[in-house]
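As promised in the previous annual report, we have extended the structural survey to additional targets. Below is the entry for CCZ1/INTU/HSP4 first Longin domain-containing protein.
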Amino acid sequence: MGLSSATTTAATPEGVQLCIFDLRRGQNEGQELDKIIFFFPADLPFSAQFSVIGLSEGLITFTRIFSPEAACDAIEAERHSHVFYEAEPDIWMVMVVEKNKEFEPIWRSDALRKVLKEVHSLFVMFHGSIRALLDKDPGGGLTRSHLYHFIIDYLGDFLVGKKLLLPSFRDSLKERGTVQMLTVGREAAIEVQSLVRVLESCAGNMPCHSLILFQDLLVSTTLSPDDTVNLFAYAVLRLSPRALSSGVSSWSYLRKGATSHVSSSSSLARPGSIPEQLHGSLGNSPAGDKSSQVVRPLQPDKWSKGKDGFLVSDIWGADASTGTSATPTVFLHQTEERMYLCAHQHKSLTLIFLLPVSSVLKGDQGVSAVKQQVLENVSRKLLKVEEKLSKGWGGENAYHVSGYRYLLADGDRNVSRASPPGKVTTLTKGSLLALSKVREEVDLEKSRAKSDNAGHEKELEISIRAKNNAWVIARVTRGKELYMVLEKANETLLYASDAVEKFSNRYCNGAFSLN
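The corresponding structure token record, generated without further manual editing, is:
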């Protein structure tokens, strides 16, 4: 099961393969190639691609015999880890990661699966579901081209030198697929609510959804949780002030490439054009001559701030009637409705609002009219809100708790808060490896509870003493998870439990208290 034939070329980032295939396609002999709708690296020989996908399909079929509703999530082979994600019915994403020579458990399968889930969710937000695209494009050529450029642009943010730095044990105090919220005082919250109401009034009778960020933190949203996560992730990647500042690595918990084991002075590839080691030979890529038809929302360094404060990009082409950049559109997960996306920025405050395409008369001209209303009626509110939030902002270490390195995640609300990355770097490798193992154990227990169809949330408490004498603690209760590292040597379990109780009572309203 080591996939010895599926080795990467010297020009390709080592040790990672990512594929998407459709079980409904390529069922007849001689049509097996039709099953593959994405493969990275694209210049891998087809025989090696078939080897990876054939093994993956066999594992899925085999495990479905024992678990029809939930096929395999991950397979650990001697030399590789295989992570599976059924993105859509019968459309599977598989990541194969080569293990390092020491065979250290440097990553968690669930963390890698969340990478697959995130790139799929972002793709669907901009292009719609893969199945819908394939239904319109039976040959699959244009669908492959969309997927190829989108995923390569996404992977570019993980690239350091010639290596893809995927989430590892050093990222165990981060939670992908969640938003990080800014804590605001009562006066600031009232101002934010007033801003949202004025913004909605600018749209007239049209529905208007909004998302407001300060720095890389969420301030307000009127979207569903899933849509909030997707739009927040995109905003952090491409729209926030830090994302617009070329070469400045964001401190956000979601930002790719800002992993703790890469110093800010390292040669982080910021792909104005995606590096050759990702694209490989375009002649071998599935993009073919259809690349000119493809919209690339994740293409880096394509957004800029206009004089009026609105963010503009030429990614979506130009409006035929005015010659100005066309307004981006996204699909909402909850309603599957197509929406115009508009973003306005003032200093550290980013205001994103969405308008239904079906409700806007005259397309981009109608959007421009709403933008003008926003400039006339919202600008003063933006100034006031930004000023209040800036005064109350404690900086990048605002959520640091002395003596603790922690991650607090609320799965029901898709919200997380964690120690600042700069503080996490002070932890030793031994502490982080121990934390990764604890999180993997929690992942396994959650997966078992899900497969057992338990009608109640599983509650867990794990406390271990690492080899370096640090305490690593996990508590799971009522959809909330707390992970903590206490690097105080020679302390007792009673001390560690008391530290968790104090943290829970002060910062979590007692949610993780045992009393």
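The chain has three domains: 16-171, 186-260+297-392, 405-507. The radius of gyration is 23 Å. These points will be discussed at the next consortium meeting with the crystallography subgroup.
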